[in-house]
Amino acid sequence: MARIIPSVLGLALALACASLLAADPSSQTPEPSAEAAQSKSNAPAKRASSYLPASEIKQITIDDQPLELLVRSWEGRKKLGAAIILPATNGTADAPGLMAFVRRNINAAGWASLSLTPPTEPPSPNFATPATEVTSAGAAQLSSPSNKPSQKVKPEESNKHLLEQEDFLVKSMSQLDSIGTDFPGKRVLITADQSAGLLISLLSQNKIADPDVLIVINPYSEDETRNQAIAEKLAKLTMPILDIQSPDGHPASIETAAQRKTLAVTLEAPNYRQTTLALNLDNESAWQNCLTAIRGFAARMSGAY
What we know:
Blueprint: H1 4-23, H2 34-41, E1 57-62, E2 65-72, E3 81-86, H3 98-105, E4 111-116, H4 155-174, H5 176-180, E5 186-192, H6 193-204, E6 213-217, H7 224-236, E7 241-245, H8 251-266, E8 272-276, H9 284-301
Parallel strand pairs: 3-4, 3-5, 5-6, 6-7, 7-8
Antiparallel strand pairs: 1-2, 2-4
Helix pairs in contact: 3-9, 4-6, 6-7, 7-8
Keywords: Signal
Region (Disordered): 26-47, 114-159
Pfam family, one: DUF3530
């Protein structure tokens, strides 16, 4: 009994101290003020390319959405003009690989580089089969040829998205004029993959201004009809064109490579050149070969020399 009484007294004392501390305003963590909360909400968002110098990053706005435009000035005494770079769709203005390499290294040849944020691709559909249907016999045969990839989306949905991508690019390109005034001279348009297919379509419809030189790398469209039309559209463009095809490019691009070259010869497009280069993503020496080809063709065909 003698041991229990001190324990009870100690517990009562501890509870009394805790109550006093809770009642003391100075012991409580102060609530953030309204001004502090407002200041935090107005803090600038972190740049997507925060690893780059701030001087390289400009912003354009498309449909109320801010997008990055990466700008690098020319280096040395040569000031030939600007290379407008559009990386592959679903990437960024500084997507790792060949296009980022060109963006950083074409400046020494006298070209400023303006790298655009490319349009996005729609998310891939997620096809799921209910568990109750797994053992059911198929009701119909597959409608797609066995040697072609299955259609990702319905044709009308695909066409709608392609038109949205084209509209995005028209709005992006229209905002380059004010920024490009810092770099007078010739204009070289460099693009790759599905972005190249989109720009070829826009140029053929006169929806964007013709560059002095067009460089396309592995151009294609996942839409079969549009992909087959690339060769004729490309051959009918009047500006000098360097068409770079790599053996490891997208199958849809490889499929039309021979046709692109043949039609250019048939339609007597004297300024069209097609070259084959290995452009493995892990092969920087191949990137240098590609840059050398771009620099030489751009300078020669633009009349910059």
